[in-house]
Amino acid sequence: MNADVTVPSSDVTRLLQAYAAGDASCLDDAIPIVYDELRSLARIQLSKSGLDGKMQPTMLVHEAYEKLAVGKPQQPSNRRHFFAIASRAMRQVVVDTWRAENTAKRGGGASVLPDATRELIDSERPEDFAQLEQALSKLATESAELAELIDLSCFAGLSNEEIAKLHGTTIRTVQRNLIKARAWLQQFLGER
Amino acid sequence: MAVASGLDFATLDALLDQALDCDDAGRKTLLESLPDAQASALAELLDASGSDVLAKLGAAVRSTVDDKSATPKPRDSTRRAGSWRLRGEIGHGGTGQVFLADRSSEDPGENTDFSQRAAVKVLWSHRVGSQFSERFFRERRILASIEHPGIARFLDGGLLGDNRPWFAMEYIEGKDIVTACRDRSIEDRLRLLLEVCQTIAYAHRRLIVHRDIKPGNVLVDSSDHARVLDFGIARILGDAEEPALTRAGGVPLTLRYASPEQVSDGPLDIASDVYQLGVLAYEMLTDNRPYEVSENSLHESVRTIMEQIPPLASTHNARIKPDVDAIVAKALAKDPGHRYAQATDFAEDIRRHLKGLPVTARDQTSLYLTGRFLRRHGLLASIVAASVIALTAATVYSLGLAREAREAAERSRATLEILTEVFAQSDPFGEGGADITLAEALIQARPTINSKIESNPRLSLEVNEALASIFLNLDMLEYEVAAHEAAWAAAETLGAGFERQRIVSVAGIGNAKTRIDPADAAEFLRTNLPDQPPTSETAVAWLAAKYAEANAWLRLRDLQRVDAIAVSMSDVSNAHDVDDPRTLGRINQLLAGSARRAGDIPAADQYWQRAVDFMSEAGQPAGHAVFLSNQALHFGKTGRYDESERVFLEAISLFRQHDPKNTSLANILRSYAGLQFRIGSPQAALDSLAEALTILNRDRDHYAYFGAQNSAASYAFANSDFDASIEAIEDGLDLALEMFGPYDAVTARMLPNLARVLAFAGDEQATAHVLGLHEIACAPSDVRRAAIETALTQQSPSNEGREQLQSALAIIETGSALDLKAFNTLVQHYYEADDVFIDPLDRLSYLEALEPIAISNGYPLPEDINSSLQVLRAPRTEVAAMIAGAWSARISGLLTAIAPERARVVCRNL
Fold first, then answer.
1. What is the C-alpha to C-alpha distance for residues B254 and B234, in angstroms, rounded to an integer?
2. Which of B324, B345, B495, B666 has its CA 20 to 30 A from that of B720?
């Protein structure tokens, strides 16, 4: 991605619309923009750190939406697509951060890996995040729906209720699918 | 994973679904029924489904995002701030890190008289520019000048090499004030609160506001005094300059403790501090937050802070007195103008309370103001009337009844007290006292009212009956139904001796429901009313309820049932010797209708005359006039226009005399206009309607207003006054869409007129469109087809989506059988075609089209579709309300963009 190029937000709307109309390649175009936005929002948010030091991924994603997708009245489907994209971008942000941490660790720099991440690594033993990524992409090839659910729930931090609303389904359906997603992800992590 | 022998993803996933649907036993059976390889793969999956991998992943993500590593941390090289040497981190939060520091001896600087130990706070932010230091140096002397035992002294501050600001202040050891309050008495807590208020008041007198009062910034020190930290973001009052320090500098706003002004960019002054003191007080006293501020959505948080009225402090701690409730509530008023004007006033009220003196907060929400408020809305009168009746009963009847009467009076008083109290809490009285409507106050107060009366059915009955009659007057039908239902439940609990109240409640529910959904009302009354009144005492109430049922059937045009009810009411009133003139008037009214329908005009005339005479005897001019107008309509329907006009004029003059502002007068005028139009004077008809419209309140009398505009549109059209016609349509349709949405019978009535005008104007497309809307609005059975058509014409689905919709339409129209594959395509389309189904009703229609196909072919509908169907079907009015906004915009757009202009041009050319 090119950091010098700032894409105006109307382009995101256009990309979203194109994506909604079935042009899947727009997804790939939109992700870097959203990715950049998320990163910069994260930086701003951390420096402001408005909510008592708590920085939630959900908030980042919502804010990114507000920022990128404002303008014309939004189609509900745009919102849904946006969150699909944003949660994947979020995954990338997180995985990149982890990877950087990992490199730093291997390179002998001080480890600033957050505790919970360390715990995940310790207990699940994915030597690096490649394994987690692999498991997630494998799931995505088998069931894009379940993979998206993991992105929305874990990476974008949306509540089951929010996801249900976004997808026009019930909370129960979301819960059920999360159980399934959990089963498969765990399964794929275990296989290797 | 093997892709053979049923071990592929799809097969296993389906099995997993199946297994998750079963209980343990079912799961076991399922596993046993599978081939070994499949069974073990499934068992493994089921095992894995219990893993906490997602929870861990989520936590890892959050901590990654939350990780402070993204901002620079003080490295070893920056272990100094000005002349202070940072010794170790003693805490960190949203704003930054706090270090214990001491002054290095080699760099005494100018402030050697300051204490040698300090807490140094280094802010996370490094986004401050030169403005910051300029401003900072201008203000730090002022900050340093605040000297008060309750304030941790500001010592020093500046910028680190990497531009992060730091502040040094007096180091205080202690607990945060909310924690420190936990094992203290309410009185002790109030003492500490008083100290804090006095401290803040001191700073205010020096024209310094704090802006970030929260538990973390108020400590209780070892000598048990409250100390306020962090006057670092204060700014000097009256400085008009953009507060760079607090905005651009990114010094944090702690959302949980933010005042409404803070989140709405209002002026931050003393009032904002008073609010934050209120939040602090609330937490100190209750150990609970006044409201939960969402960490996930800024929008939501802002709304919460701006709008959510916290429950009384005493709901968390019963030892908190009403005075204290009032004090805290006053500090927490959303409108700064309703809070304490000064922190010192806040302090004064706490002091007065501690001394047992009356507090000013109570004054504002006192019985006096409440009484004024209730009186303004006529509520007090009705409650007082109830007490007076109870007392009169005590004197009229023998002493044996005195106890009962006293109890009744007691209950009236309790009712009054409860309502007074809840209104006081909802603080409907500002300076002007007119900001909040009775409706809003009631809605706010409902949960409190219910919690206060739920344990006492007698009181609950009384209060809910009172509420129901208030809601009736306010035209808040859903709330009215709820209040009647609560009264009904209470009467049910009270058992024998409360049969009459039960019937009254049922009738009330029925009457309200008739206005929401007559079919629902009719069915409700039919199933919940006994065939006969249980006793003679309940006969009048029963007859009133039956009359309500007859009205509901009448709305539904089920005249056979109406006739049957008229006969049974007549029989019951004879059997029980009912002599209530109003009831007898109503029975005769119903009998008159039956007779006219049976073609027996002389009998109908007679019944009408009796009905009108009884109503006149009942001594209610309004009821009398309404009956007269009905009699006039009867004459009109039977072709006796002169008679009709005479009686109409009698009804109108009766109303003008007694109640010239009554909505019913407007309705009568409208009926009269109908007659005038029929006998050939459209202009006179329009004049009557104009008078009706001046009586009606557009925001309140929706149905009547709408009806009058609809008539006006028709008559003006017939009178060739097209401008007036369009104007009336626009106004009426706007209102109808606003209130009822497009899928409502009321809306449906206005649309044909619009279509007529459009057709007249030669706009075929717009005419067809409006007629389509009309079809949707008036024919529920055809809704699905029409809605799919609408989806086709209104939206721009992809070509594929369009084809699928068209095939769906064809299937619905031909009712042809469908193979499972085609059915699944349709189901799939539902998931994919979000674009098409923006309107819930479109969505519902599509699903309702799918459902019968699924049922008749025995295909399963996915679980989420089933539940979506339930949700969407729920209250139709709600769905209509949901979509009303969107449609309103579309229709008004249509009207303003196409119809009036073209219509006007065409009309003028004619």
1. 14
2. B666
